[in-house]
Design goal:
By secondary structure, the protein is of the alpha+beta class. It has five helices and five strands. Helix 1 packs antiparallel against helix 2 and helix 3 runs parallel beside helix 4. It is globular and about 50 Å long. The relative contact order is 0.13.
């Protein structure tokens, strides 16, 4: 196995003393996992942040072996993690993607949608400008994996969008996160709490 592609880093789990197992969403290959040597070191720590866009090169001697990954940073989400709402949104959408998608199955529509959503979260003037995109991404994920999911209306105020966010949660929990809902859904609850403060 040898692949090189732009990728969105969706999860990074410590491995051993200094390494990281990274899960990466690519347009052509879907989610792929790779061993990043020194991933927790000073040089690579800013690269292996969920939400970052990277150029990934993965190599393995066989398809059954966990590939070694070399990552180059293309776009960092690090600066946006100091803001509570963007940090919660980036944490939620990357954790959801990592937990819900099977490995090595391409979902080019989801790759494009997640890229656009992350850009919106980082560059929109307010959360009001990206909540609809977040709802649409969740609904697209449900549809792509065969569980329905209706996109939100083109025009809607924040309060109705937050109600839709509440209604969509149980679907995600039941269909996409049945075996691992605890930590992942906790990230969504933190986000909903913070968004809720905007309409109080």
């Amino acid at each position: 196995m040898h692949l090189k592609a732009p990728a969105i880093l969706v999860a990074a789990r410590p491995h051993g003393e200094t390494a990281v197992i990274a899960r990466l969403l690519t347009e052509e290959y879907g989610v792929v996992a790779g061993y990043v040597a020194g991933g927790r070191g000073r040089q690579l720590r800013p690269v292996v942040i969920p939400g970052n866009l990277v150029e990934a090169e993965l190599r393995a001697k066989s398809d059954s072996q966990l590939p070694f990954a070399r990552l180059e940073l293309v776009r960092s989400r690090g600066p946006y993690l100091t803001e509570p709402l963007p940090a919660a949104a980036i944490g939620w959408v990357t954790a959801l993607t990592a937990a819900a998608l099977p490995e090595r199955q391409a979902y080019p529509g989801l790759y494009a949608a997640l890229s656009g959503l992350l850009e919106a979260i980082c560059h929109a003037g307010s959360a009001r400008d990206w909540v609809r995109a977040l709802l649409a991404y969740e609904a697209l994920l449900l549809r792509e994996l065969g569980y329905g999911g209706a996109p939100p209306p083109a025009e809607a105020a924040l309060a109705p969008l937050l109600e839709m966010l509440g209604r969509q949660g149980p679907l995600l929990e039941r269909y996409l996160l049945a075996d691992r809902r605890g930590d992942v859904m906790a990230a969504r609850e933190r986000l909903r709490e913070r968004l809720g403060r905007m309409v109080e």
